[in-house]
Design goal:
Layout (H helix, E strand, L loop, with lengths): L2 E6 L5 H8 L5 E7 L15 E3 L2 H8 L3 E4 L6 H10 L3 E4 L7 H14 L3 E3 L7 H10 L4 E11 L2 H4 L9 E2 L2 E2 L10 H13 L5 E10 L8 E8 L4 E7 L1 E14 L2 E6 L4 E3 L7 E2 L6 H10 L13 H11 L7 E2 L6 E3 L2 E3 L3 H11 L15 E2 L5
Parallel strand pairs: 1-2, 1-4, 2-3, 4-5, 5-6, 7-12, 10-17
Antiparallel strand pairs: 7-13, 8-9, 10-11, 10-20, 11-12, 13-14, 14-15, 15-16, 18-19
Helix pairs in contact: 3-4, 5-7
Length: 374
């Protein structure tokens, strides 16, 4: 039986979904929706209808599954419309902006009986599953996440909401920990859950920016979980040598490291990272769940609630804006901003479970603290 799929948000990252859908058997792309003209790469297959309004698409096509790849602040109304139209949904990350939105979408799921998978694709990693099996058998004493990427001026010009806290008076979310490096936070929280640590109850954070944007491009957050276990996330988009993204777990058996973008893993006692082959695709998992509801979703909306608590804490309108670093501490390399020495700061913060201000980093500002709303 063929499953019909529609894609809302067909440009930008939506092009990845268009390519992926073309590789799947038993699936037929039937419609695209985007307010902008559809980018020609990849070509739109024959027979696929194109809309500028998702509501018109849902009224005319009635797809089985809807993939939503639109700006995060548009997710809730579009997902609710798709669910109420009778479709199951694959919703890109970050799924929602607040816990209130999480509850709103959860209520729609209960109302409709449909399924919502969230696009945290690293949750389908077999390497991550192996790590979670390991941490469930030992006492974990700390979890850290480190990533050092680079983004240029064009990255912040790609969309009206990029690097912003609001557009047209409407709150939007962007920032290193909640969007490009959101997987570092989600994988850390999933690892903590596997260790039985519960969700976040408090957070301390320092957020910085190297350019005139409203969101951060360098961020540090220390989360305290229900069990007392702590997570330290240290990430930047103004990095030096590339650090793809590591989840570092210390426990009674020693240290484990998961490089989550590459599915490389070193368990305690193993001398180096090695690839653990295999990922279960989130769309494939959603299709399997549709065929047999006993197949659990890998990234259901419910699993992302702790992540949304962190997002809300870091991006709420009353949270102070990120600190703009003095130009003395920033180098500009043809539109790419770099903070000299930042990688050493990231590593030291992760090692000591400390924030930059606690380590006496020259450019650091005092942290702010507030427990996430519940």
């Amino acid at each position: 039986m063929t499953t019909t799929v529609a894609l809302i948000g067909a440009n930008g990252h939506g092009r990845h979904h268009r390519r992926h859908l073309a590789t799947l058997g038993g699936v037929r792309l039937v419609a695209l929706a985007d307010p902008r003209p559809i980018e020609p790469d990849p070509p739109v297959p024959d027979g696929v209808e194109v809309f500028t309004d998702h509501r018109e698409l849902l009224a005319k096509i009635e797809p089985d599954v809807v993939v939503i790849c639109t700006p995060p602040h548009t997710h809730v109304p579009i997902a609710a419309d798709a669910l109420r139209a009778g479709a199951d949904v694959l919703l890109e990350k970050p799924p929602v902006q607040t816990l209130a939105e999480h509850r709103e979408l959860t209520a729609v799921l209960a109302e409709t009986g449909r399924a919502c998978q969230v696009g945290f694709q690293a949750l389908g990693s077999h390497a991550a599953a192996r790590l979670w099996d390991a941490v469930a058998r030992e006492s974990v004493t700390g979890i850290a996440a480190v990533a050092s990427w680079q983004r240029d001026d064009a990255y912040y010009a790609r969309a009206p909401w990029a690097g912003r806290r609001s557009v047209g008076g409407r709150p939007v979310i962007d920032g290193a920990l909640v969007n490009p490096l959101a997987h570092a936070v989600m994988q850390s929280l999933a690892t903590a859950a596997a260790a039985g640590a519960g969700g976040p109850v408090a957070c301390e954070a320092e957020r910085y920016r190297t350019r005139p944007i409203e969101a951060d491009d360098t961020a540090f957050a220390r989360l305290t979980l229900e069990s007392g276990l702590r997570i330290l996330a240290a990430v930047t988009l103004a990095g030096e040598d590339f650090i793809a993204g590591e989840i570092i777990v210390d426990g009674t058996a020693g240290r484990a490291v998961l490089e989550y973008p590459t599915d490389r893993l070193a368990l305690p006692g193993e001398p180096e990272l090695r690839e653990v082959a295999g990922r279960t695709g989130l769309l494939e998992n959603l299709l399997a769940h549709r065929a047999d509801p006993s197949v659990p979703l890998l990234a259901p909306l419910s699993r992302t609630e702790p992540f949304t608590a962190v997002v809300e804490w870091l991006t709420a309108p009353d949270v102070p804006p990120p600190v703009l670093l003095d130009p003395r501490h920033v180098e500009d390399h043809d539109g790419i901003r770099v903070v000299p020495g930042i990688n050493a700061v990231l590593r030291r913060c992760a090692q000591e479970m400390a924030l930059p201000s606690e380590l006496g980093v020259t450019w650091a500002a005092p942290p702010y603290r507030r427990p996430p709303a519940r």
